[in-house]
Design goal:
Chain lengths: 420, 428
């Protein structure tokens, strides 16, 4: 895959990353702000995500009703999302229509209105979004595990926020959040697709360089103290199915151990984006009928986060039996060196997943900004090489270091039985 | 203003000049199109071995069979099949609908022969190993237990049951607990023997390969497949129109949100009104932030995080439905708002501007939907399944522009019946 990109920082501190791809008449533009749920203090949980919603409520130039229609009318696809570490907005458009997206993003970086009435109506929309999540046993279990894993660090709370804060946050809170974090020196614009870099850059400067720089927002930093001893918890709710989630502490994405841990993840629960029926935990838990499913998930984050293994327990098994099998598999990984072939396999899987991703222009613009939020583009371009350099000894060492019972949280969703 | 950010790539919509189509002597249609921008391949297809063939007592059989195909073949066991696939970062899967068994996969181009070999074995020589079937059954039953707790699944199921009472479309293709428990290995073998075969099978290959080579590769592994007496489905029974509004609430304790599905029968994919219905539906509940429905239910009233309308158009009668997730205390209010919108829609139709917006959206988004190999593969399969003509996507813009306000209104009045609705809800 060609990885040549242009990186420029405007006079006001806004970073631009451009990648020309001339395979289809499409351009995808993403704007990233360095603010997410990790920046939210107690009492303001969910404010980054709510701010993201408010950014669709219009500016003077692009009133709410006009704004969503304008993009759709041109055949564009657009949306936004909030993560622990960042908030991002994207538009993927026919190439000759991208100017609209650029004008819109430059305008709403500073001119969004945050009208009281819109705040009130969005409050109930977001509460409804949270109620929808609460219908899902896995959301309730995941939330409980996360808040037990982080007592101090703001990764403690779900991105959507706690219900009490969703009732309490005011229009002024939201506007202040917006003004503080939505400044060019806290933003990264990543664009991929069918354009010429020189012209694109010229247009970006016209639209964005005049936006004044603001004080660079500080990011909330509260370090999670070391966990001393396993935490176990349970959540109860309707249904017949028991779910188990074991969360281990993983380092941040720029830590050198991150790469051997990617191999660990792929060995235990499969490579991301592929089926995982030959993964060790599938074979041990699902094939042997302790569970009906198992999956693993780690995230690339700024601060150390979690690797979560989720087990859908087999109805004829007790959760303790499945946890014992999980422990046995982890012990194996800590005691027995894996073969070199297993690393070669993980690299080949990653290469395939990269190739599938490169079919899609939206995906490529996404990746530039995504890695920029916690590292730099080099992290992405050297990913396969770094993976290939992992040794069996590395894998054993990180398995011993990070997959420890004493620093994990194990949560269980205990169903109350069939209810009509 | 950038007048034009110089475009160096040509918009190339799939058409007769670059969709390579060959029918093998055993009846398999192979479609191929190349794209050398990435070293990957997307593969997809279907054959007529869907749930239409299963009895009420064995509901879920077709789907159970499709899920068992990769659990063991005459050549390889479950673990070997997945080891081959996962070791090279390829993937493949089967799924079953009412009419068809569908399949899909992706791979790096160097491993296409492997993918096709596994496809061919799974289709031709599955062995349904008893222990694997039992494992799968237990997983399936847990899946049904999870479904029973899902408000949107339960509302959707109740909707189909009421709308299509007495018709095969009323049945959930993943079955019910009792029917899944009653299916035997013999049922599965028999189903495979009777209904799997090359006649009317279609496969599409898109990616970094010359079309001729793709066809050769398919022919090599599937060209020799012969199934004399491969079963044919009976014609669909007629669907009974509703005489009045019917409602059902599926009670689920302990939930914080209710889901609702409101709707009626819609056009099939081949109906001449399909495109006017689709454009009308875009105005009703898709365009921008979920159209008019999104506007009244979400934007103006703040009642729901999601509220939109959709058409489900396939071979037989389709659905035209509005769905939303709302706080249980707002359920009635949301239903009233939606009914009011449906009445308004058939009273005055769409404005000139609304129609123009949706037309522009349909035309503009086409290249986006055809961006990835899998997008192109599914477009080619739609052309084949609904007999749309190889130049469909090239004619598309003209067909979209031709739809008028009165076409939309006439179609809406034909299908949307605010006095004869199916209203399905699930929640506390």
């Amino acid at each position: 895959m060609a990885n040549k990109i242009t990186q420029v920082t405007l006079k006001n501190g806004m970073k631009i990353m451009l990648k020309e791809i001339h395979t289809a008449p499409i351009i995808s533009s993403w704007i990233w702000y360095r603010v997410g749920s990790k920046d939210e203090p107690t009492g303001k949980t969910g404010i980054s995500h709510w701010t993201e919603h408010m950014q669709f409520k219009g500016t003077k130039k692009f009133p709410a009703n006009i704004l969503d229609k304008a993009i759709s009318r041109e055949g564009g696809r657009w949306n936004a999302s909030t993560s622990h570490d960042s908030t991002r907005y994207y538009e993927t458009m026919p190439a000759d229509k991208i100017d609209l997206a650029l004008r819109l993003e430059s305008d709403r970086m500073k001119n969004s209105i945050y009208n009281e009435k819109e705040v009130a109506s969005e409050r109930t929309v977001i509460i409804s979004e949270r109620e929808g999540h609460e219908n899902e046993p896995m959301f309730r279990l995941g939330e409980a595990v996360q808040q037990s894993a982080f007592r101090v660090h703001p990764y403690h709370h779900e991105i959507i926020g706690d219900m009490t804060d969703l009732h309490a946050i005011t229009r002024d809170d939201l506007y202040q959040h917006y003004r503080m974090y939505y400044v060019p020196n806290n933003a990264v614009l990543t664009i991929a697709g069918d354009f010429e870099t020189k012209e694109m850059l010229k247009r970006i400067k016209e639209l964005f360089e005049r936006i004044p720089k603001g004080p660079t927002p500080l990011r909330l930093k509260r370090v999670e103290p070391e966990q001393k001893g396993e935490v176990r918890l349970s959540v109860e709710g309707p249904g017949e199915t028991t779910f188990i989630q074991a969360a281990y502490r993983f380092p941040n994405a720029t830590h050198p151990d991150f790469f051997p841990l990617q191999v660990v993840d792929s060995l235990l629960t499969g490579a991301s984006g592929l089926s995982y029926k030959t993964a060790r935990l599938y074979r041990a838990l699902v094939d042997k009928e302790y569970a009906v499913d198992v999956s693993g998930w780690s995230e690339s984050t700024i601060d150390p986060y979690l690797y979560r293994i989720t087990i859908t327990n087999h109805p004829k098994r007790k959760p303790e039996e499945s946890i014992a099998v999980l422990d046995e598999e982890i012990k194996k990984l800590q005691e027995v060196l894996i073969s070199k072939d297993e690393i070669t396999r993980a690299v080949k899987q990653a290469r395939a997943v990269f190739a599938y991703g490169s079919e899609n222009i939206t995906h490529q613009a996404f990746w530039m900004g995504y890695v920029e939020m916690f590292s730099s583009y080099e992290w992405f371009t050297t990913y396969l090489d770094k993976l290939a350099k992992v040794t069996p000894q590395d894998v054993q060492r990180v398995a011993q270091k990070y997959l420890q019972s004493k620093s994990r949280v194990v949560g269980m969703y205990i169903p109350s039985g069939v209810e009509a | 203003m950038v007048k034009r950010i110089i475009k160096t790539s040509k918009p190339s919509l799939p058409g007769p000049e670059d969709i390579y189509r060959v029918v093998l002597s055993n009846g398999i249609t192979v479609l191929a199109r190349s794209n050398f921008n990435s070293p990957s391949i997307s593969m997809g297809g279907y054959l007529p071995a869907g749930a239409i063939f299963e009895s009420d007592a064995k509901l879920g059989l077709a789907d159970f069979v499709s899920s068992s195909l990769m659990r063991g073949t005459q050549t390889r066991n479950f673990d070997e099949i997945y080891n081959e696939l996962e070791s090279v970062g390829a993937s493949m899967g089967f799924d079953s609908g009412v009419h068809n068994l569908s399949f899909g996969g992706r791979t790096l181009v160097e491993d296409l022969p492997l993918l096709l070999k596994l496809l061919s074995e799974s289709l031709q020589t599955p062995t349904f190993p008893p222990d694997e079937v039992e494992k799968l059954r237990a997983q399936w039953l847990t899946g049904l237990a999870i479904r029973a707790q899902d408000t949107s699944d339960m509302a959707a199921m109740a909707f189909d049951e009421m709308l299509f009472a007495g018709h095969p479309y009323s049945r959930p293709s993943d079955g019910y607990v009792e029917t899944i428990q009653s299916i035997t290995r013999d049922d599965m073998e028999k189903f495979h023997r009777q209904y799997f075969g090359p006649r009317d099978m279609v496969i599409a290959i898109v990616g970094a390969i010359e079309p001729k080579k793709a066809v050769e590769a398919v022919s090599q592994v599937l060209g020799g497949w012969q199934v004399p007496g491969q079963g044919r489905a009976d014609a669909l029974p007629p669907h009974k129109p509703l005489k009045k509004t019917v409602k059902r609430h599926h009670a689920l304790a302990g939930k914080s949100q209710s889901d609702l599905v409101i709707g009626m029968v819609g056009p099939s994919r081949n109906d001449p009104e399909y495109l006017s219905a689709s454009l009308g539906n875009s105005v009703l509940g898709q365009f921008g932030m979920m159209g008019r429905i999104g506007d009244v239910v979400r934007e103006k009233s703040g009642l729901a995080y999601y509220a939109s309308s959709s058409l489900g158009a396939g071979i037989g009668p389709g659905t035209w439905e509005v769905s939303a997730g709302v706080n249980p205390k707002n359920l009635k209010k949301a239903i009233d708002l939606i009914e009011k919108e449906l009445r308004r829609f058939i009273k005055s139709g769409v404005t000139k501007e609304e129609l123009a917006d949706s037309q522009a959206n349909y035309i503009g988004r086409l290249p986006l939907s055809l961006e990835s190999n899998s997008g192109v593969a599914s477009a080619m399969l739609s052309i084949e399944r609904y007999n749309l003509g190889a130049d469909y996507y090239q004619r598309y813009e003209g067909m979209v522009r031709k739809v008028t306000r009165s076409d939309v209104l006439e179609t809406a009045r034909k299908y949307i019946t605010p006095d004869r609705l199916v209203i399905a809800t699930a929640g506390p």
